[in-house]
Amino acid sequence: MRSLAERVGVTATAIYHHFEGKDALIARVVRLGYQRFGEYIEAAVAEHPVGSLDRITAMGEAYVRFALENKEYFRVLYSIQERPPRDLEDLPGGGGYHPLRKYPVDAMASGEIRQSNPDLAAHFLWTCVHGTVTLALACNMDGVGCPCSTDKAGANEMFQSLKPFLLDGLRGAEVKEA
Questions:
Q1: Which of 113, 120, 134, 172 has its CA 20 to 30 A from that of 81?
Q2: Which long-range CB contacts under 8 A does 13-18 form with residues at least 24 apart?
């Protein structure tokens, strides 16, 4: 708390006037982060028809964009804690899980994607997009044939390159170069 107070130019005591302690401050940051994350997702999908594959793709692109434009929030939201993992339902907006589940369910209902377990589909999508972002933030993969770097263009390029695999699967329709 002292370090934070020093960075923002106030005393540690002043912070305690607004927050009971470090956990309360972190909880507020997490709530604001998930709120901002939700706004990115909703804005991205708004222009696409309900149940469309375009809506799912826009959601993934917004996830990448949010993470790269809000790196600090992303790191706080998805940091691995020493304490027991948080339940998704305890996080604002279900930790981003609800749209990741809703849009595939809508796409299944419209016939845009095959019927499957919606939770499995959501986990698959989340794993793909989260892995893309995590690699982009953590690794320089130049020279390994993968367009992934810590800049926005590299992560977006990587996501675009992975879309055929995401949409068709590894054994599905012939995977075409993006």
A1: 120
A2: none
pLDDT in tens, 93-129: 777 788 889 999 999 999 988 898 999 888 888 888 8
**Which residue from 169, 147, 170 is spatially nearest to 158, judged by alpha carbons?**
147
User: What are the tokens at 17?
Assistant: 């006037």
Q: How far apart are CA 12 and CA 27, in angstroms?
A: 18
Report the C-alpha dihedral over residues 55, 37, 133, 109, rounded to 10 degrees.
-30
Alpha helices in the chain (DSSP H): 2-8, 12-18, 22-45, 53-69, 71-77, 97-110, 118-138, 152-168
**pTM here?**
0.76
Give the CA diameter of the chain. 62
